[in-house]
Amino acid sequence: MDQSVIESPELRIEFNQKKKDLSALRSQLYNINQEKETIFRSLKSMRDKTKSRTSQIKKLKEERDEFTKQVKILKGEREQLNLAVKEKASAKKEVEEKKQEFTQKHHIHESPSQIKSQIDRLERKIETEVMPFEKEKQLTKTIKELKAKYKDLQQLGNVWKEINTTSADYSEQRRKAEESHHLVQEKAKASQEKHEQINKLFEEVKKIREEEKPLVEKYQQLKSQLEEGRIKLDELSARVTELAKIFHEEEEKSYKSKAQDRVTEVQDKIKKGKKLSTEDILAFQALND
């Protein structure tokens, strides 16, 4: 190699400066990469949160839609029950009017048991007591009237049965209608709660995505800086390697020259009978190797 090139001070200055630049650039790229990785972890955490909330939103939508579907079905059932209640109410009113009409027509105020008791008492009296024929005839007539009244009361009993049945049916249908109404309200409330939870999660997702934007921009900037820096690093490394090869030969020659001087000193010590140090011995051995 041309000795003038090796001994060029300009190349030596360039070599030293390039090594410093290379070290500084590596440190700079390391710091940029560390910052980029920190932002990447933050973005990953945010995206995990978004994914989690999106999954919750999907599940809540399914639950809300199921409640909404149930509400629709229950409203239809409630409408049918309300119609049934109206029909039973109308039937109940008709029976009650029938009862009132019957009692007014037959002038009935006693209960069937009271009438039956009177009939039994009068019949025993005729059977066990001696009485004038006219009195017996009058009691027989009274018994006949009471029996007719009792028969009417038995008919009223059927009316009462009809009233009780109709009232029971009305009460049952009304109970079912009220239960259906409460169930509709419960399902509708549950559906609304799910909807509100969905809106809350949507707001959280929106907020997270807004927070992501500056981080994404910064991440892209750092990524570009790294790419540019690596290109520059490759160029700088290539130049430093090139200069290092040049100066490696010179340094090797310089090392051998210094080592020879050192050996000469050791040989001189040996001649003069001076004590050799460990460094002296190592230097002597290195040159012989």
CATH class bucket: Mainly Alpha
User: Could you tell me the number of beta strands?
Assistant: 0
**Compute the gyration radius: what is it?**
57 Å
Could you say how many structural domains there are in total?
A: 1
Structural class: mainly alpha
Present the secondary structure layout:
Elements: H1 3-6, H2 9-106, H3 112-128, H4 133-272, H5 278-288
Helix pairs in contact: 2-4, 3-4, 4-5
Put the structure in a nutshell.
This protein has 289 residues and is mainly alpha-helical. It has helices spanning 3-6, 9-106, 112-128, 133-272, 278-288.
Any overview of this molecule?
With 289 residues, the chain is mainly alpha-helical. The protein has a single domain, classed as Helix Hairpins, CATH 1.10.287. The chain has 5 helices and no strands. Helix 2 packs antiparallel against helix 4, helix 3 packs antiparallel against helix 4 and helix 4 crosses helix 5. The longest helix has 140 residues. The N terminus is likely disordered.
Key phrases:
Helix Hairpins; mainly alpha; 289 residues; disordered N terminus
